[in-house]
Amino acid sequence: MAKSKPVVSMDTYGIHSTWDAQSKHLPKIQTFTTDIPAEIDIEFGFTVNIKKARGEKIRYCIYHPGILDDSGNEQAPFDGELHVRTNDWDFYLGDTIWAPISDKVGDWRMTLEMHGKVIAEKTFTVYERNEGDFWRRRGF
């Protein structure tokens, strides 16, 4: 019998409550958006629900806009692999802003892949908050 094809749905994206890696609960959505103000400790990303894929390996990756390490070198994208734990699995992929803010401004692309194919992705634009940028970003 053929194996069922995984079903993936993106439930939330945008600004979330602070993520606690020790908790079984995912962060709660606060604002659906792809525009993220560059504020220290703001949490942003997306949650997905994956059905019919228990045991499958997924790869996650966060492509950031050129974050520098302590030596001033650009860091590689943050990525890793993990296994889908249940047949109805919720997963959060996200990040937060930390000091200095200047190297966090720009596009952050977050992806999930299974079997080499992107199954979920979202690009967030982190911007420095000032009134001129707010109106310019909205086309005024």
List the helices and strands and how they pair.
Layout: E1 7-16, E2 29-32, E3 35-37, E4 43-51, E5 57-63, E6 78-83, E7 88-96, E8 106-114, E9 117-127, H1 131-137
Provide the spatial order of strands within the biggest beta sheet: 3-9-8-5-6
Unreliable residue runs? none
Structural class given helices, strands, pairing? mainly beta
The rounded Rg comes to 16 Å
For the residues shown, what is the average pLDDT? Answer: 90
Number of helices: 1
Q: What separation lies between the terminal Cα atoms?
A: 57 Å
Shape: globular
**Biggest sheet record:** 5 strands, mixed
General description of the model:
This protein is mainly beta and 140 residues long. The protein is 5% helix and 49% strand. The protein contains 1 helix and 9 strands, in the order βββββββββα. Strands 3-9-8-5-6 form a 5-stranded mixed beta sheet, with no helix packed on it. The longest helix has 7 residues, at 131-137.
Quickly list its features:
140 residues; mainly beta; five-stranded mixed sheet; four-stranded antiparallel sheet; globular
Q: TL;DR?
A:
By secondary structure, this protein is mainly beta. It has one helix at residues 131-137; strands at residues 7-16, 29-32, 35-37, 43-51, 57-63, 78-83, 88-96, 106-114, 117-127. A hairpin with a 2-residue loop joins strand 8 (106-114) and strand 9 (117-127).
